[in-house]
Design a protein that fits this description.
It holds the Pfam family Interferon. InterPro entries: 4_helix_cytokine-like_core (IPR009079), Interferon_alpha/beta/delta (IPR000471). Belongs to the alpha/beta interferon family. It is found in: Secreted. The protein is globular. It contains 4 helices and no strands. The chain starts with 7 loop residues before the first helix and ends with a helix. The protein is mostly helical.
């Protein structure tokens, strides 16, 4: 995905949904191969804080503009993507190999989040 193709409201919705899905994925799994529990807890706390921040931004954006249909379609696409990840893990019996592949995929998602956040930061400076 190209972060420059989305309007601000859509970008906020994508960011929120991606972080929410990542949070849900890792919160639901009690023991993760290769992840220390303290690192996981810190990771989840940071994600939760970012989600709360994005929710506040989304409320402000919703008051200013109405782009809910486009944003909801994008949210659905993200949910479907993460459902495929969960299905893959389940089909692979949550094996170490499957988790390694998922970790790489989550890193790709977080890189996209980083790029999209950078785009939003630049837009915020320009307005």
């Amino acid at each position: 995905m190209n972060p420059h193709q989305y309007q601000k409201g859509q970008a906020l919705a994508i960011l929120h949904e991606m972080l929410q899905q990542i949070f849900n994925l890792f919160r639901a799994i009690i023991s993760l191969n290769g992840w220390e529990e303290t690192h996981m807890e810190k990771f989840l706390i940071e994600l939760h804080q970012q989600l709360k921040y994005l929710e506040a931004l989304m409320r402000l954006q919703a008051e200013q503009k109405r782009d809910t249909l486009g944003s909801e379609n994008l949210r659905l696409q993200v949910k479907i993507y993460f459902q495929r990840i969960r299905d893959y893990l389940e089909n692979q019996d949550y094996s170490t190999c499957a988790w390694t592949i998922v970790q790489v995929e989550i890193n790709r998602c977080l890189f996209f989040v980083f790029r999209l956040t950078g785009k939003l930061s630049k837009q915020g400076m320009e307005t």
